[in-house]
Write a structure and sequence with these properties.
It holds the Pfam family DUF1572. This protein is mainly alpha-helical. 56% of the residues lie in helices and 5% in strands. It is built from five helices and two strands. Strands 1-2 form a two-stranded antiparallel sheet. Helix 1 packs parallel to helix 4 and helix 2 packs antiparallel against helix 4.
């Protein structure tokens, strides 16, 4: 049971990290840039957020007892640019993440090997979590990349700034383990 709890704590930390990356990227662009697509075949940051929101609500609402692809989900509409304000966008962003974190908090360590369904395909709870832990960072990476393309002015690095690896490592290794 200890290993299962370590896993649950680890994945919560990973999801929080990717949530933070997305938020820090979105903070660096002007509100109107959240709704701009680089070209007609790409998605705006707002569209990516809307898709993540729809996926999170579908996957994590009653996830132990209902299929992760809810009948009420309209995935195709997630790719329509109909969010008008940054405030509404961030409300959806936070609603999705809250749904995810509430679901993760509800998992008991002994439930990780229980079978749940996504699109009628059986997954252990652990597999379903891992599936989303691959999916969400994929889209957060898209948000970061789009924000970097759209930002006016210099980009504030979300990790180790370019040409600063030695300085970063020196600071890290100067601290006690």
């Amino acid at each position: 049971m200890v290993e299962q709890q370590v896993y649950l704590d680890s994945i919560k930390k990973q999801f929080l990290y990717y949530k933070m990356l997305g938020e820090k990227a979105m903070e660096q662009v002007e509100p109107e840039q959240l709704f701009m697509a680089v070209h007609e075949d790409s998605n705006s940051i707002a569209t990516i957020v809307k898709h993540l929101w729809g996926n999170m609500l579908s996957r994590w609402t009653d996830f132990l007892t209902t299929d992760g692809e809810k009948t009420w989900r309209d995935r195709d509409s997630e790719f329509e640019n109909d969010i008008q304000t940054k405030e509404k966008l961030l409300q959806k962003w936070n609603e999705g993440w809250t749904c995810l974190f509430n679901a993760l908090e509800s998992i008991a360590p002994d439930q990780l090997l229980h079978i749940i369904y996504i699109r009628n395909e059986g997954h252990t709870v652990m597999e379903a979590i891992n599936r989303q832990l691959a999916h969400y960072p994929y889209h957060v990476g898209q948000i970061v990349y789009a924000a970097k393309l759209l930002k006016k002015g210099s980009w504030d690095s979300l990790s180790i700034p370019r040409n600063r690896s030695h300085e970063y490592n020196a600071n890290k290794f100067a601290k006690e383990s």
